Amino acid sequence: VQLVESGGGLVQPGGSLRLSCAASGFTLSNYGMNWVRQAPGKGLEWVSGINSGGDRLASVDSVKGRLTISRDSAKNTLYLQMNSLKPEDTAVYYCAKDRGIWWGDGMDYWGKGTLVTVSS
């Protein structure tokens, strides 16, 4: 199992980015998937999850309406579309596979992360 994130970088407040997480060694659509972030000097924060069916999403309140999780089953890739970014979104973003079909069943594999910096 391997998860490789990409798409991070420096963006101005109000800007957009799309993060990608390429999965290999398993079929992404068979499991719940998550995005988790860690801001500088802080702990891990779950950001968003999608179930195996792709028809149920959940996000932490602070990102609702701005950060949207999705996936492309044909490409076996998870995405996080990030709009209206704020400085407090600055963090390393990780994608993580869940053990079961829903987010919150327990994350067993993680990528190495991609850094998003929101600053003027």
Beta content comes to over 45%
The number of helices is 0
Strand tally, please? 11
- Assign the structural class, choosing from mainly alpha, mainly beta, alpha/beta, alpha+beta, or little secondary structure: mainly beta
* Low-confidence regions: none
Mean pLDDT: 96
Percentage of residues in helical conformation = under 10%
Shape: globular
End-to-end gap: 37 Å
* SSE sequence, one letter per element: EEEEEEEEEEE
Radius of gyration: 13 Å
Structure description:
The chain has 120 residues and is an all-beta fold. 0% of the residues lie in helices and 51% in strands. Strand 4 and strand 5 (44-50) form a beta hairpin.
Give a quick set of tags describing it:
120 residues, 7-stranded mixed β-sheet, 4-stranded antiparallel β-sheet, 0% helix, globular
List the helices and strands and how they pair.
Layout: E1 2-6, E2 9-11, E3 17-24, E4 33-38, E5 44-50, E6 57-59, E7 67-72, E8 77-82, E9 91-98, E10 107-110, E11 114-118
Parallel strand pairs: 2-11
Antiparallel strand pairs: 1-3, 3-8, 4-5, 4-9, 5-6, 7-8, 9-10, 9-11
